[in-house]
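Long-time lurker, finally posting.

We've been working with glucan endo-1,3-beta-D-glucosidase (Athelia psychrophila) and I want a structural starting point before designing mutants. I don't trust myself to interpret raw outputs, so I'm hoping someone here can both generate the structure tokens and explain anything notable. Sequence follows.
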Amino acid sequence: MPSSPPSSLDNWWCDATDEFAFLGFSYEVTACQSQSQLNSEFADIRNNFNGRYVRLYGFCDNDGFYDDVIEAAWTNGLGVHALVWFGFDGTDQWEGRRDTLFGVLHSNPKAKFVTRVVQFGSEPLFDSVLTPAQLTTQVNNAKKNLTSLSIPVTVSELAYGYQERGGAQDVLDAIDSINIHMLPFFASTASTSAAAWPLVLADLNFFVTNGGKKKMYMDENGWPNISYTGVEPNSPNAVANTANEKGYFGLLDQHCSDLKAYAQGGIGWFAHIYSDDQEPGYGIYDVNGKLKFPFAPRTTC
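Top reply, 14 upvotes:
Generated this for you. Predicted structure of glucan endo-1,3-beta-D-glucosidase:
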């Protein structure tokens, strides 16, 4: 990064058509990590895994927290997929989170140089937080609010979230990119991660058919190594263990060229999630801070 923010975003970001393969990690912030922890773990993502982005997950409502995220991202040369977190309890707290985030994006001079996109999520359609029409209104209002910052807006959602709402074509038309929750472990026909490619393709084909050839990212994307209440499979044959968690990311590496062949330069993907401290079963690190398996995903092909 330069010593201070440039005067313009001109030529700042790589073109989205150059983004494919492994991009970085989903990173849960409900623990309200300290500035030093954010800096240390963002450095790890950048330097040890060649991550280019962090995709935020969960929420921290502490004053100034997103300023800390911005500083850690700036320091370590990372972009951020920011998130307006709805939660699962049907409250309207998300509105305050939205307004707080937008305030920081406008007030922090580094914000637009690290915030690659703002997402509404997680899974607002699947969780029936807003109707497709209401969510479309939120997306369009956010796009207007952030126009001067050139920050695009999307929704973080399952294919099924759209499908169970009749396709929610108005939402798909409104968003700037398609940010997909790819969790084949929960498919009704799931078995092992090695057999998951047809499940991945089925979800991607929905977005190819209905997404207007927009750029696609798989952001909440992974396979758990344990099953527990709230993370139960929908197939009796779905296997949750470390070999299958590792195998899922290996599957994506094996199909790097296939993913690259999609519209707008191919599909970029995130590993969900950085650590089991953030969400049990999905972390690349276990609760003791040890890698569960060697993780060096492809960033190009």
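Before you design anything, note these points.
The mean pLDDT is 96.
The two ends are 26 Å apart (CA to CA).
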